[in-house]
Amino acid sequence: MLQPSAAPSATIAEPSERAAVAATPDRVSVVATSTNDQTAIDDVLTHYRTAYETRNASAVKRVWPAANEAALAKAFANLESQSVSFYGCRTNIEDSTARASCDGQVSYVARRGSRNSRTEHRNWTFVLRRTSGDDWRIDEVQ
What we know:
There is one protein chain. The chain has three helices and seven strands; from the N terminus they run E-E-E-H-H-H-E-E-E-E. Helix 1 (35-53) packs antiparallel against helix 2 and helix 2 (57-63) runs antiparallel to helix 3 (69-77). With 142 residues, the chain is α/β, with parallel strands linked by helices. The two termini are 13 Å apart. Strands 1, 2, 3, 4, 5, 6 and 7 form a seven-stranded mixed β-sheet that branches.
């Protein structure tokens, strides 16, 4: 099965060092060093989730350079639709690396076989790296 996208909307308490926010549906829990970093990471996760929902392998590759674009394109071609939701993400940022742990679900409809929608609950861990300034990319998805 495909690894779904990620990117919820974030609520950040205040632009202090090490702010913390509780998770609610489609919200992100934050333990961040700065609001700029958190916003940039949230944007990467949103792009990842959107790329999976639109089944766009090259868009996944833009935020996750190590992704196997050909394998994703083949897998996406077998899906009629796919949606990804995060119920909450906890983000820890340390210097130029970050880890976002997200709980949520993926729903999909296959092009072949049963045309019934399937929903699976998932837990994702995204390992991210700052590439320059406020620019972040996904290094790994677990």
